Amino acid sequence: MCLFVRDDKKAEFKELLSEQPFFDNLKIMKLSKLLKVKSYQEKHLLVSQYDFFFAENEIITSMVPFLGKAFYSKNKGPRPVTLENAVEWMNKELAGTKVFLRPGQETL
Fold it and tell me: The pTM is what?
Protein backbone atom coordinates (compact mmCIF):
# COMPACT_ATOMS: atom_id res chain seq x y z
CA MET A 1 0.00 0.00 0.00
CA CYS A 2 1.12 3.52 -0.69
CA LEU A 3 -0.25 6.65 0.96
CA PHE A 4 0.31 10.12 -0.55
CA VAL A 5 0.26 12.94 2.00
CA ARG A 6 1.16 16.61 2.25
CA ASP A 7 4.71 17.17 3.40
CA ASP A 8 3.67 18.57 6.78
CA LYS A 9 1.30 15.65 7.57
CA LYS A 10 3.68 12.70 7.09
CA ALA A 11 4.66 12.48 10.76
CA GLU A 12 1.02 12.55 11.91
CA PHE A 13 -0.01 9.74 9.56
CA LYS A 14 3.08 7.72 10.44
CA GLU A 15 2.31 8.01 14.16
CA LEU A 16 -1.35 7.07 13.63
CA LEU A 17 -0.67 4.08 11.39
CA SER A 18 2.50 2.72 13.03
CA GLU A 19 0.55 0.40 15.36
CA GLN A 20 -1.54 -1.17 12.60
CA PRO A 21 -0.77 -4.71 11.38
CA PHE A 22 -0.45 -3.53 7.77
CA PHE A 23 2.17 -0.85 8.61
CA ASP A 24 5.08 -3.05 7.44
CA ASN A 25 3.58 -3.07 3.94
CA LEU A 26 2.78 0.66 3.87
CA LYS A 27 4.83 3.36 2.16
CA ILE A 28 3.99 6.93 3.15
CA MET A 29 5.11 9.22 0.34
CA LYS A 30 5.24 12.99 0.59
CA LEU A 31 3.61 14.97 -2.19
CA SER A 32 6.88 16.74 -3.02
CA LYS A 33 8.54 13.39 -3.70
CA LEU A 34 5.63 12.22 -5.84
CA LEU A 35 5.82 15.40 -7.94
CA LYS A 36 9.40 14.49 -8.89
CA VAL A 37 8.08 11.38 -10.68
CA LYS A 38 7.72 12.80 -14.18
CA SER A 39 7.93 10.19 -16.92
CA TYR A 40 5.32 7.61 -17.81
CA GLN A 41 7.83 4.80 -17.13
CA GLU A 42 8.47 6.06 -13.58
CA LYS A 43 4.74 6.30 -12.91
CA HIS A 44 4.19 2.85 -14.38
CA LEU A 45 6.93 1.46 -12.12
CA LEU A 46 5.28 3.08 -9.09
CA VAL A 47 1.90 1.58 -10.04
CA SER A 48 3.40 -1.88 -10.39
CA GLN A 49 5.10 -1.73 -6.97
CA TYR A 50 1.89 -1.33 -4.92
CA ASP A 51 -1.56 -2.91 -4.93
CA PHE A 52 -3.46 -0.08 -3.20
CA PHE A 53 -3.04 3.67 -3.29
CA PHE A 54 -4.49 6.15 -0.84
CA ALA A 55 -4.21 9.93 -0.76
CA GLU A 56 -5.07 12.57 1.73
CA ASN A 57 -8.51 13.93 0.91
CA GLU A 58 -7.28 17.53 0.63
CA ILE A 59 -4.82 16.75 -2.17
CA ILE A 60 -6.59 14.04 -4.14
CA THR A 61 -8.35 16.32 -6.61
CA SER A 62 -5.12 18.08 -7.54
CA MET A 63 -3.41 14.71 -8.10
CA VAL A 64 -5.80 13.37 -10.74
CA PRO A 65 -4.27 15.16 -13.75
CA PHE A 66 -0.75 14.48 -12.53
CA LEU A 67 -1.19 10.72 -12.00
CA GLY A 68 -2.84 10.26 -15.36
CA LYS A 69 -3.12 7.18 -17.53
CA ALA A 70 -0.50 5.12 -15.68
CA PHE A 71 -2.70 4.94 -12.59
CA TYR A 72 -6.24 5.14 -13.90
CA SER A 73 -5.89 2.66 -16.78
CA LYS A 74 -5.01 0.02 -14.16
CA ASN A 75 -7.92 1.10 -11.90
CA LYS A 76 -5.40 1.99 -9.19
CA GLY A 77 -6.37 5.59 -8.63
CA PRO A 78 -5.87 6.62 -5.01
CA ARG A 79 -8.74 6.39 -2.56
CA PRO A 80 -9.31 9.41 -0.32
CA VAL A 81 -8.54 9.20 3.41
CA THR A 82 -8.28 11.66 6.28
CA LEU A 83 -6.47 11.44 9.60
CA GLU A 84 -9.79 10.56 11.25
CA ASN A 85 -10.76 7.67 8.94
CA ALA A 86 -7.44 6.40 7.55
CA VAL A 87 -7.30 3.21 9.63
CA GLU A 88 -10.95 2.33 8.95
CA TRP A 89 -10.70 2.87 5.18
CA MET A 90 -7.41 1.03 4.80
CA ASN A 91 -8.73 -1.97 6.71
CA LYS A 92 -11.87 -1.90 4.58
CA GLU A 93 -9.83 -1.92 1.35
CA LEU A 94 -7.67 -4.81 2.55
CA ALA A 95 -10.69 -6.87 3.57
CA GLY A 96 -12.77 -6.22 0.46
CA THR A 97 -12.74 -6.80 -3.26
CA LYS A 98 -13.32 -4.28 -6.01
CA VAL A 99 -15.10 -5.08 -9.25
CA PHE A 100 -14.88 -2.63 -12.12
CA LEU A 101 -17.66 -3.00 -14.66
CA ARG A 102 -17.49 -1.38 -18.04
CA PRO A 103 -20.62 -0.19 -19.82
CA GLY A 104 -22.50 -3.16 -21.23
CA GLN A 105 -21.09 -5.74 -18.82
CA GLU A 106 -23.45 -7.66 -16.60
CA THR A 107 -22.92 -9.71 -13.48
CA LEU A 108 -24.82 -12.84 -12.63
Answer: 0.81
